[in-house]
Predict the structure.
Amino acid sequence: MDLVEIAPTGKPPVCRIMDYSKYKYDQEKKERRIKKNQHVTHLKQIRLKPHIGDSDYQIKLKKVLTFLEDKDKVKINMFFRGREMAHKELGREILERMVSDTAEHGKPEKAPSMEGRVMYILLTPISKKP
C-alpha cells in the first residue's frame, strides 16, 4: 500500500492509501480501451489522367471505395499533359463521374478546382450513425 496525494492544491491536501501500481495498471488499461475505439483519418490520393480507359477507371473506383469505407479522405488528382490542358472539360467530366459513382460512400468537400496542371477534388466519407 502507498500513500498517494490526490488533491495537492486543496486546503488541506488530500491523500489516499491505495495500491499505486494497480491504479497505474487500471489507468493504462482504460487508455488502451479508449484508444482502440478511435480512428485516425488519413488522406489518400488517387492519380488520374483525362484519357483513362474504362477498365482502369473501374480499378481506381474500387480503390476509392475501399478508402472511403475505411473512413479515410480521398484526394483525386487529374493530371494534364501538353495539349490536354486545352480540354479541361474532359477531366472535369471524369471527376464528376467519380463523384456520382461514389455518392453513397462519400461526398465532395467542394467543386473540382485547378492548381497548375492538376485538377483535384477531395472526397470525405459519409458517417453512418445508427
Notes: The two ends are 45 Å apart (CA to CA).
